[in-house]
Fold:
Amino acid sequence: MVGKKSAKALQVEEGLERTDNGMKLTSFPEVSQINQKNYYTEYMKRDDQILPLRLQAEASRDKMIRNAKDKDRALARTGDTDVPGPNPDETEFGDEDASTGADGFDASKIIAIHLGSQNMRIGLASDALPKTVPMCTAWKMPKCESDIKPPLPKRQKMTGTPEEQFGDDWGKKYGKMCDDLKKDMRINKRKVLPNSKELVVNYNRRTPPEKIPEHNDPARIEWTDIALSSTFNGLEAQRIPDNSDPAYRLFWPIQHGRLNEEDFPSKEQLKMAIDTIITGALKTELKITKTGQWKDYSCVLVIPDLYDKKFVEMMLEMFMNDYSFAKVAFIQESLAASFGAGYTSACIVDVGAQKTSICCVEDGLCIEDSRINLKYGGYDVTETFIKMMLFDHFPYADINLVRRYDFLLAEELKMKFCTMNQADISVQLYNFHLRAPTEYTRKYNFKTYDEVILASMGFCDPSIFDNSAKLNGRRKLIDRSYNIYDPEIPDDPVSAAQISILAAIKPSAAAVAKAPANGTTNGEGTAAVSTPMKEKPNPFSFLGVDTQGTPGTSHAGSPAPEGSNTPAANGGSPAPFQFGGSGNGAPQGIFVPDPSQCSQRALAAERDTVLPIAPLDTAILTSITTAARGDEKKLRDLLGGIMMIGGGAKTPGFGPFLEERLKRLRPDLGDRILVGTSPREMDGQVVTWKGASVFAKLVGTNDTWIGGTEWERLGSRVLHHKLAFYY
Structure:
């Protein structure tokens, strides 16, 4: 009996079996569906997918292969199996005098550059000290700067008594500072003569100058011969006579620690001015005369702690395209200063010519929220010192800091006579020589009293400085940087300490913007509820307290009482600025703007209109308090490691004076506060540059160098991956 056949066997007998030859129905690739519950991707999550990191890994692998080949050659040549390898300690740190750095870098082929508002420090990493070049260039123009700009110090009238020239308001401020100094000197048991001011004024008013023929002047100045070139840089530009024919005008491309957009008609001319100064320094100071040699050099540039991304990208483009440097690296000012001084943890206070920066450094990194940038410096002391001397009938009454020889003279007088030691305050007789082109040398005798200390005390009372024109031209040529994914989010770095300084001046600057659609807030906090709020007191209580512990006067006006329509008190001072307010309607000073209605772009524009000015001692405590974040031990360590650097900090007695002011603000930590200068008797002006040269020779900085291949393929996007700090 035959059993029942299966369906498959019947299909075979009948020829109906399906045969599959393995061919697909279509040539298009089949994409499997994504598992929505467990979705995962490795895109841009591995180092080998990022070009800068991949090139760095390839370089490390090539170096390892090269060292292995060298070892094999040594074994074949000597037959000794015990071949000494490289010492990692010597390779990483090495000797400062060694000409070859880590990873084959030749220190004599690395250029370190520190751009400042008044001077540029430039030199090779193998040099002990940098070359100092004034950060200015002179171009042919119809008129020089002294014919275009008003005289400095600013005068309300060019004739009349000092009270009429400088105004009653400034005279009252100056008189109050004189009285406060007398009280302080009496408290410290210093001798104060009652008629010291009268002695100074009477002597200066009746002392004429003495004319000296040029052939009898042993220190006469060699003025620049304008027939030698059409463009001059540095000191040569400052030595061009103001009345030269044709006329030359001085341009300073960096002012107040940022690009000077006021004096230049276009971004290209601003960039050309920086390029002209650096090119001249490379050829004259470093003797790299041929442009074809630049491709053999690498460059380390020092940038501010609170930098503008547009400035960093502009300098990177200039170094890569115009100079064709082999590699470029960037380092922040405070971090470079810590490298130059050899400190691992410190509060760096850099008092420059036109800006003062404060930042706490810990373990080789800047604490981001502690960064502060204040727009005053040594030049403000110079201008205020001359203004005080003119108020006391300075014999050279026509001095004008816009004129080149007068500016050099004023800087010389400040460096010679200004001090912060109360023991040196007495009626003193000094003299100086005025050397002007095509004129006889004039010798002036003059007396000083408290002007030599009051000008420098402006660091702790910056209202005595002239701050009226420091924001002119801001964002005129170069807009701020914005996020590449959301053009409404500003991308320039901010810090909690800087916002606290701005909030003490204008409370609306501390408002929190509404959160964007993607939920990010650019590190400035979270979005608040959309309800009006009363102004809250600033968490840093010492921002509104003077050194005596009594409440100080605020830059903002006092708010009016709730429900009243009366104007603000405090002598009719204006009420706190309200973002987007028209000045009509509700009483001013009661409510701050609604944060949820303000975009981050608008808040960034609002902060750009506020000039960051605060007493130096208050700013230092603000920075340290923000960096400590409630950690008492870190607070004590940072208060005990304050380092003053920069040309403005070279005033005698500045450190002890600032230390005393800090102890008044924090008497509970008076035994822990210590203000020092750069170690090893190093000049405070070159500490930052020295740190950049040390940074260039460390093996740990190899991953921060930006090469030509990375720049060519990625452009400025490479900065995000290569910088040693968050960009």
